[in-house]
Write a structure and sequence with these properties.
By secondary structure, the protein is α+β, with helices and mostly antiparallel strands. The chain is 35% helix and 27% strand. The protein has a five-stranded mixed β-barrel with strand order 2-4-5-7-6. Strand 4 and strand 5 form a beta hairpin. Helix 2 packs across helix 4.
Length: 179
């Protein structure tokens, strides 16, 4: 048995909603996928397909050429990935805490031994450490919030505009059919 096993530091995972302590550093990062709501994704995809079909038909009539490339439903169904980085903190009593940071912060935002105050939220899986929601670097008085991609940023403005146009076309066709 070597010395590292004899004096292994005890890491506290679940802590209160606010932890104040010294920033010890980041652990190895990995990626996790954002869950995408299937019914909503299907509605956006179908309405965008209607707009794309109408646009392709208009382009064919005008003989201007084909449309641009389009992501498949299978690609959209797989949500965007975000970076998960375990962060270690030590409080005034010498206890070490590990929280998960989802997303990224600027490299220069935190330095080892900076005094920080972290607001956390529990995750759905109770086996995971709490999630870092907001961080204030008390050394520099800089508030920081890591950002992760959302379903809407994953779909992109182009597809959402197409879905809006498709919904307008479907509504107009339904109104004309009912009349």
């Amino acid at each position: 048995m070597d010395d590292t096993e004899l004096y292994r530091e005890r890491i506290l995972r679940h802590a209160g909603p606010v932890i104040t302590g010294r920033f010890l550093g980041y652990r190895a990062s990995y990626t996790r996928e954002v869950k995408v709501d299937q019914p909503l994704l299907l509605a956006v995809f179908v309405t965008a397909s209607v707009a794309q079909a109408v646009g392709a038909l208009l382009l064919a009539l005008l003989r201007s050429g084909g449309g641009g490339s389009r992501r498949r439903f299978k690609d959209l169904k797989k949500g965007p990935e975000y970076l998960v980085t375990p962060v270690r903190l030590r409080d005034d009593l010498g206890q070490t805490y590990e929280v998960e940071m989802h997303g990224q912060l600027p490299q220069s935002a935190l330095h080892r031994d900076d005094l920080v105050q972290v607001r956390t939220r529990p995750q759905k899986d109770p086996d995971l450490p709490v999630k870092l929601h907001q961080l204030v670097n008390l050394t520099t008085l800089q508030p920081l919030t890591p950002r992760i991609p959302t379903m809407w940023s994953h779909l992109g403005p182009g597809l959402l505009i197409q879905a809006g146009l498709g919904l307008t076309i479907i509504t107009a066709l339904a109104a004309a059919w009912i009349s």
